[in-house]
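Fig. S4 source data, part A: sequence.
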Amino acid sequence: MKEININFDRSELNLKEILSYSDKVKNIHDKMEKFETEGSSFLGWKDLPNNINNKELDRMEAIAKKLHKDGVETLVVIGIGGSYLGVRAGIDFVLGELPGDEQKMEIIFVGESLSSTALVQKLRYVENKKFAINVISKSGTTLEPAIAFRLFKKMLEDKVGVNNAKDYIFATTDASKGVLLDLAMQKGYERFIIPDDVGGRFSVLTPVGLFPFACVGLNIKKMVAGAKLANDAYSSNNLGINPAYQYAVARYLLHTQRKYPVEMLVSYENAHKYFLEWWKQLFAESEGKNGKALLPHSALFTTDLHSLGQIIQEGSKVLFETVITVKKPKYDIKIMELAQDEDLDKLNYLAGKTVHEINNIAFEATLDAHSLVGRVPNIHIQIEDYSEETFGSLVMFFERAVAISGYLLEINPFNQPGVEVYKSNMFKTLKKPM
């Protein structure tokens, strides 16, 4: 398993305090295993890595290879929230901020907003490309992706004809009901199933993420294998040996006992930008109920140190940081030494060091500044690398953690009733027929 190491030395908490919740966590875990907790009908993510069918992975890989062979340049992934963030997070996490030759197909994401400008620009972008569509929605009625799908489907049908278009449209949806399922069956689109017991924000290791990952060239079998090994490790009810549950308890204590209202998840890697966004949805939708929960915030360091560093260091003490660092970068480069008369930028003192080494020094310096001087609690999570296995492991780490964290707050982590309020208001104004 790709190790995930967690350190609480700068968190204002000691391990004894965290482990005092051992009995409570064991009780929650054991009830989850028996499906006796509130919201237990959405615990499908918990055993998902063990239950994924290898034949289904083979099917996804075979379709992806056919699209590559057919010369498809771009996959248009249409989805929002959990049908979008996890997919983008995984691609950027493994391939980097600017994927290169490893990427076998370009992916653009649409239907993630109602910005008319963004939508028109993306339509124009694929107008002269050979593209396929993967539309992701359990119901097919979520407005943002539904509008985008109508427009991109029409463009594809106009380009290649209605009969040919169906070979380049893939619907990831519910197994038995919904507008998108009905449409896919009528049109003859290839379908992938989102399990009934897996909510959107937990769906990245279902076909929601796995099919686009296969298209882009990621090794989805390695990703699932990493998730399985991690889930085996993090499914222990022993808090003393389960870092995912320790993290859940630590953030719960910092919120409820130390009274911090905000957790800022920080990474020192640009490629983690959308992983941070996925994490924010995971915790915000899971915990933000009944007037409870930490506000999940995020930052990319060192970039954001030049805009947020001052307020973190010396502003009001409203947050603690959870910081992710990477042991082995995807790429690294050394600072070269120049002749003395050419050292005009005065950087020769860095000669021989790699940029990743310097990034780690910046992390250590920031950790000291924020925790020792600024009195900002810090939890440090170190991951191994940028691999598919590590991504799968980290997904399971945080999914396990959010379940325990939500139940510690005595809420159901698997519903999101508040999201429906704005939708109801919007549909009322738009006069949607019921």
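Fig. S4 source data, part B ends here. The radius of gyration is 23 Å.
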